[in-house]
Design goal:
DNA polymerase, domain 1; DNA-binding; CB; 8 helices; mainly alpha; 0% strand
């Protein structure tokens, strides 16, 4: 094993860093492969081999191809990627109107790609772990006031939908529970 540095002390520090990574079971040096290449490999192997549902695999594959393999992080080598690059990617996605839930999915995919890169020894750590997961704003469900419920029940009293509506109003059941 060898290491280089402008001075003897820097070369020794680089060699010590490599030795420490080996002791920890990490990659000696991070891969120079661009993220797009690593993401494509994840999409065509690890994702397919995973036990995720087929619909999830299809969603993740599409998001990976469009927003990671072709996104602003695509050509950055793993060895030079920083948490700041990932934060910039999130900011750009928001600027381009990516919905919060889609951005959260994209982040999940990126984190899975980088987890696989760590597992495969391409990088020592997953930088996405150091970036907060994008949030999705919570919205309160719409509901009717008691007077509105009464008016609705009066209007549908002779309809075949009266009983399911009454059941939902009285019990608070969700639509699927009432229909079940």
């Amino acid at each position: 094993m060898s290491a280089y540095g402008a001075t003897r002390a820097l070369a020794k520090a680089a060699l010590d860093k490599k030795s420490e990574r080996i002791r920890k079971g990490l990659a000696v040096v991070d891969s120079k492969a661009p993220l797009s290449e690593v993401a494509r490999r994840w999409r065509t192997t690890a994702l397919i081999a995973s036990d995720r549902r087929q619909s999830t695999k299809e969603l993740y594959a599409a998001r990976c191809w469009l927003h990671i393999e072709l996104g602003i992080l695509a050509e950055i080598p793993l060895s030079r990627m920083t948490a700041g690059d990932i934060e910039e990617w999130i900011v750009e996605a928001r600027r381009h109107g990516i919905s919060p839930s889609s951005l959260r999915t994209d982040y999940t995919v990126l984190r899975a790609v980088l987890d696989t890169a760590v597992r495969d020894g391409l990088v020592a750590k997953n930088l996405a772990e150091h970036v907060d997961r994008p949030g999705v704003p919570r919205t309160e469900a719409l509901h009717l006031a008691p007077a509105q419920v009464g008016a609705l029940l009066d209007k549908v009293a002779t309809s075949r939908h009266a009983l399911p509506i009454l059941l939902a109003a009285v019990t608070g059941m969700r639509r699927g529970e009432v229909l079940g």
